Amino acid sequence: MKKKASLCAPEIDSYIRFLDYSFSRPCTEKSKKLLLELFELLRKIVPDYKDIGWHLYLSADRGPISKFADYKEMLEEGEVKNRKEFIDYWHEWYPNKTAWYAFYASYDDGWYVVALNNNIIATMGPEEYEKPSGRDFSPLIEWIIEAVGNCIEELKNGNYNARVSKELPYDLRTGTISRNDFWDIYPEEKTDYFKDLSQEEIDEFVEFVKRQDNSTRTPKDRIKTMTAHDFYSWCSLGYKANKYDRLKGFTVKKQYLNHADGRDEGLRNIDEYSPEAFHDWLHNRAEGGGHPWEVCRGGNSTHIALYVHEDEKGYFASLAGKSWGRSVETIKFCLALIHNNIPVYLWDAEGLADRVLGKDFIGIVPHYIFPRYCEDHFPDQKILDFTHLPYEKDEEKAFIAKAKWQKIPKVVLVEK
User: 307, 292 in Cβ contact below 8 A?
Assistant: First the structure.
């Protein structure tokens, strides 16, 4: 029989917001005991991650509105004007009577970790690592024990996997939507993407990608000698193709300094016109975390990089810039190099070509996962872009209908 829950969703969410890794060590004796009890319970379930981790989906009641907030306080503070607004606000935060949480727990080499919706809410290590925090959050761990116990009872009855498969909200699931379907839902996104890219450029780029040899990750041709000035000139071609500012009246070196990351590992200090100086810098520079190849600066995943390589045949370039917001610039940069006979290999070329043709897929990840660097969630696919389900209901319904959703891994009990 399902136990009466000790916490409801707003209370659980309050704990999640309050706790993070820096403050989550359960240093009271009660919370330590509860964590050990939780992991003893989890050992009844077959671990699904390298024999050290467990994934489950836990559910909690929304509870009464009094658990959500105090009406009088919100009214006095001007957050709502009347009770109807208060109820609407509650329903906006908790539209369904049941709230779901992605639960993860692991035990490895003396360390215990517990997380809800990707937020680490409890850790415990060997005694010598423990530091008093003066805080106790045992009610949350007690709720997790209850919820995991309910999952185990459902597993015994054969109901857990079927219920999760049927009832788990889509904003906790993983799937893909085709680019063309995405553009059908958001036609303005397509219009905006292609506003600076002509059909002629698209056709030329797609043909280039078809010819590129991805097995060697190198172009066919080489340049025999190379200087820093040559590299700056290559950058200038890309800057001009994208109509960057601060180009007119500036030397190609200054253009690079205007638009690159700036951490060039001494490149700006070498003789700009000396092949020997560039060769020595390329192969013998002290690499100290600089970004000399970040020629169009941006974030970790939103910059454009132009690398210079040398092998026994000579020098060549490779270009990288797969992010959605920089990909048109990358395509134009690539075409500018091609038009000027610069041997170049383009990283993620097939994905970029599929993107402009609307043939690629966008990864949809759960709401608690930041939609970037999510490649591990799609091990059998090459996905360049990631997103969440839309917030607007009509758009959400369209996404759910058009998306292809991954199967939810089944959970099984340890055989006795």
Answer: no
> pLDDT grade, residue 83 (50/70/90)?
very high
Between CA 270 and CA 280 the distance in angstroms is 10
114-123 burial: b if 16+ Cβ within 10 Å, else e: bbbbebebbb
> Could you tell me which residue, 131 or 203, shows the higher pLDDT?
203
Task: Kindly give, in sequence order, each residue whose CB lies less than 8 Å from that of residue 322, ignoring residues fewer than 6 positions away.
Answer: 330, 347, 348, 351, 352, 384
CA distances to 36, 63, 172, 180, 378 from 175, in Å: 35, 30, 10, 15, 9
Which DSSP symbol is given to 323?
A: S
Determine contact, residues 24/121, Cβ cutoff 8 Å: yes
Average pLDDT over residues 82-87: 95
Q: Among 297, 311, 286, which residue's Cα sits nearest to residue 219?
A: 311
The answer to whether the CB of 164 falls within 8 A of the CB of 57 is yes
The model's pTM: 0.87
* Phi, psi (degrees; rounded to nearest 5) at 306: -120, 110
Question: What are the tens digits of pLDDT across the range 273-314?
Answer: 999 999 999 999 887 778 999 999 998 889 999 999 999 999
| Under 8 Å between Cβ of 383 and 404 | no
Q: Is the dihedral of CA 72, 77, 81, 87 positive or negative?
A: negative
Mean pLDDT is lowest, of 45-54, 177-186, 218-227, 321-330, for 45-54
CB contact burial 95-105 (16+ within 10 A = b; e otherwise): eeeebbbbbbb
Is 78 within 8 Å of 27 (Cβ atoms)?
no
Is residue 11 within 8 Å of residue 117, measured between CB atoms?
no
pLDDT in tens, 199-219: 999 999 999 999 999 899 999
